[in-house]
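Take just one protein record:
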Amino acid sequence: MNIEERINRLRKEIAYHSKRYYENDAPEISDFEYDKMFEELKRLEEENPELYSESSPTQRVGGKALDKFEKVKHEVKMASLTDVFDFDELRAFIRRVKLEVGGDTEFSVEPKIDGLSVSLKYENGILKVGATRGDGTTGEDVTANIKTIRSIPLELNKNDSITVRGEVYMPHKSFEKLNREKEENGENLWANPRNAAAGSLRCLDSKETAKRGLDIFVFNYQAGELEGVETHKQTIEKIASLGFKTIPLLYVGNDEDEIINAVIKLGEDRPSLDFDIDGTVIKVNSLQKRRELGEGTSTPKWAVAYKFPPEQKKTRLLDIVIQVGRTGVLTPNAVLEPVRLAGTSVSRATLHNIDIIKEKDIRIGDNVIVQKAGDIIPEVVGSVKEDRTGEESPYNMPDKCPSCGGNLTYDDADDFVDDGTDFTLGALRCTNPSCPAQLERNITHFASKKAMNIEGVGGKLVKALLENHLIHDASDLYYLSKEDIASLERMGEKSADNFISSVEASKKMGLARVIYALGIRHIGEVASGELASKFGTIDALFNATEEEIKEIGDFGDVMAKSVVEFFKKDETRYIVERLKNAGVKTSEEVKELSNEFEGLTFVLTGTLENMTRDEASEMIKARGGKVSSSVSAKTDYVLAGEAAGSKLTKAQSLGVKIIDKEAFLEMCK
């Protein structure tokens, strides 16, 4: 057997065993044997570069990191679907379709995977382009990352030229592994598998994507050679025969009640799945009838997505514990018997304040109903009173701070300012400025992404630094040595290097970030930027009067007083001087911007390429515009990025103007 024959044989054997392991969960050889074959193939390909093949299994490991993703125009638009939220709406869709194209019309029912939609283009059986959905017309070329997903064939079973659409997702086991690693490294955790999948697929370094354990379900034929098929079911069977992992069809038929039952059954089975779904997709099965029904302005008329209500579970409330926030606010948190909810294990949920606990009549020992608001934030919906045994106990807030034993006070309701900080109307607050819990959260806030953005500095690391007496306030972060960090448990030399680099980079953040990082009560991110623009240097803020501060449009008596009092404190001056001595930039270049967005309201949705939503929001506000969290008829623009969801759909239905990042940047010139 010559070298070329040996390479071809290894490629086929590795592809076969990879499919057995990753897709069928039925390996036939040991990991050692597989790794040995893989290493032999890598060596032979390196020694014989003329035998390179883009469909080789070695192309899955990731290559050179990219600076950015190139744009890809889809040959067939990747449309979104109309959402329905109850069975009356779903029945109305079924009856409308039957009225229009015949009572014998069949429908398919399939799970709606909660991931990131992509198109896969093959030429003569070889994967050429993998692209994200983007705005449906133009996406991003993520081919290098797509190749790392082992269930995506690099070469089809036939030399067909075809484009298919699928949903990339992160299985629960991959998500839990990823978050365990992030927690151990003191990094922020992913909120849910969908966000983790989207972030992983858009890594500029495909070697990083390769580590994330992504998977895919292919659910649609987009374009190319696909002869002899007349229905969606036949399409799925055909593309499965080419080597794709396809979406499972739960039901194909004509009966309205059976369609509803298939949707209900999937909702019941949802907790047992190893991937997240947020609904079901109901499609007309006949491709010809789809053509007759046609397309709407933004969504096809032959399909809808039934969206599940938030998943709710019953579990036991074991205890209520107090968390002391960075401004001293005491927040009660429910300690729960762990329950799996919307893809993750939930053992804690905020109860907000004592009024909520009393209003919902929640007692320690109760069985309670929990859900995730927006499938992200765990919350207690209420108690199950009929399950009570009489052993449950009502909860009362403490009369001393559980962290320091200091005195507590209720905030005056007249002081309430909705500024995005953790201030709460009538909140119980610790008055001790040296409270350890406040100090820990203040330093964690100082290092957070929206503040000084010191990567890897989360609550665990801050706690360790405080316990080892390596820091006493936020400014001490800039005086730590590599040896200090490396000496901590689970913090080796590489982690220490990363910490030092991140601290150094944070010195250039500028005055607005410094103000926000200092954690002034009532002063959120936007207000910090306005102070920086008004005064230009931190020294000027030490001398600012309440009258001068109130000249800023949104600043009233409470906010102005809070700023003046903060900069009167000796500890504030001490920390700021140490920051300046460490080389932290405490000034801001004030740029005169026009008010071209004045009177305009923007809503942001999806992921923007090389730009965070926070950055886009700052640009809008700096030009006099407003940013809203929800779409309404009063919305002027929706800035839509990758994986835009229901906000985009609502904007389309209301006729709100939708722009992409390029159009937005053009408006900002």
Remarks:
- Residues 84 and 90 are 6 Å apart (CA to CA).
- The first strand starts at residue 71 and ends at 73.
- The radius of gyration is 28 Å.
